[in-house]
């Protein structure tokens, strides 16, 4: 199997997994704070920390001088959605957005819808790649050029990683593991 086909399979698997973990997500789960202090999603002006991102009625905590805190499901979900859009633009597009440039939703349904749109748009570009595209150097939001294949890999890892975190947090909130099977590639 060619490298581009492996990347296409990888991104499809990672996106399917993360969607499975957010399936039927409730607002209570979205906002649930699993620790005393969390990075989360807040109404503008109600954030507990001063370093936030967002242009609308809702904002998300951002890295600042505070030590990293345990992120809520909502924070993790919006992190996946925004960075999938940002990586898509930097890897395949012409815009150069930043996380602070986005209007973040304040509920689970709209956040999941954003994630699904971001994944669909990103996957279209990955499925349009050819073998030559995989090694093409692309700009990144952090200033270094990397291959398109490496950037696709990064997004797949992010979805696998944060999707699993969301799944675990939901299991803990429910007090039990899901009893349905993961819709894997088999």
Describe the protein.
With 186 residues, the protein is mainly α. It has a single domain, classed as Four Helix Bundle (Hemerythrin (Met), subunit A) (Up-down Bundle), CATH 1.20.120. Helices cover 50% and strands 9% of the residues. It has helices spanning 3-22, 27-31, 73-92, 108-128, 148-174; strands at residues 38-39, 41-43, 52-53, 58-61, 70-71, 137-138, 146-147. The strands form 3 sheets. Strands 2-4-3 form a 3-stranded antiparallel β-sheet. It has a two-stranded parallel sheet with strand order 1-5. A two-stranded antiparallel sheet has the order 6-7. A hairpin with a 7-residue loop joins strand 6 and strand 7 (146-147). Helix 1 (3-22) packs antiparallel against helix 4 (108-128) and helix 3 (73-92) packs parallel to helix 4 (108-128). The radius of gyration is 17 Å and the shape is globular.
List the SSEs and their pairings.
Blueprint: H1 3-22, H2 27-31, E1 38-39, E2 41-43, E3 52-53, E4 58-61, E5 70-71, H3 73-92, H4 108-128, E6 137-138, E7 146-147, H5 148-174
Parallel strand pairs: 1-5
Antiparallel strand pairs: 2-4, 3-4, 6-7
Main attributes of the structure:
186 residues, mainly alpha, 3-stranded antiparallel sheet, two-stranded parallel sheet, 7 strands, 50% helix
């Amino acid at each position: 199997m060619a490298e581009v086909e492996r990347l296409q399979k990888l991104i499809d698997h990672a996106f399917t997994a993360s969607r499975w973990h957010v399936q039927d997500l409730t607002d209570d789960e979205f906002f649930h704070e699993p620790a005393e202090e969390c990075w989360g999603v807040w109404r503008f002006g109600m954030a507990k920390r001063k370093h936030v991102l967002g242009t609308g009625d809702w904002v998300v905590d951002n890295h600042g001088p505070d030590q990293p805190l345990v992120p809520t499901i909502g924070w993790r979900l919006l992190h996946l959605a925004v960075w999938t859009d940002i990586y898509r633009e930097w890897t395949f597009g012409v815009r150069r957005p930043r996380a602070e440039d986005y209007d973040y939703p304040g509920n689970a349904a709209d956040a999941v819808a954003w994630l699904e749109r971001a994944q669909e748009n990103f996957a279209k570009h990955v499925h349009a790649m050819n073998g030559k595209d995989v090694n093409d150097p692309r700009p990144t939001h952090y200033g270094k050029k990397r291959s398109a294949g490496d950037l696709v890999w990064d997004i797949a890892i992010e979805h696998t990683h944060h999707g699993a975190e969301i799944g675990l947090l939901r299991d803990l909130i429910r007090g039990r593991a899901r009893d349905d099977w993961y819709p894997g590639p088999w």
